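ok so i was messing around last nite and threw this chain in just to see what happens. nothing serious, just curious
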Amino acid sequence: MIRLLIIAAVLSVLCRWAVGKWPWQYLSPARSTRSQAVFRARRLLAVRENANRTEIISAHKRLVAMVHPDRGGSNEQVHEANAARDLLLDELPDGGPPA
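result:
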């Protein structure tokens, strides 16, 4: 029995070394890249998961005011904030921003 546990431990370490993941990490469902992007956008704008359109837009305005190039930020930060806003607005159940 102990021999089996040692073999399992060695195989786990070899798997981690060879592919960069522990064997049990393959058992958890993988998050899609879209859901990861939405999570990062929510974290960037500091809005909750069920934020509405008004909350997203006001959080975006606050963030852009802080990272605007005139205030010491960069164009890349503004573009990232805009992308986060657009992604979260697209995820809204009503279909996102009006056309």
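not much to say yet. Helices lie at 2-19, 33-45, 53-67, 75-91.
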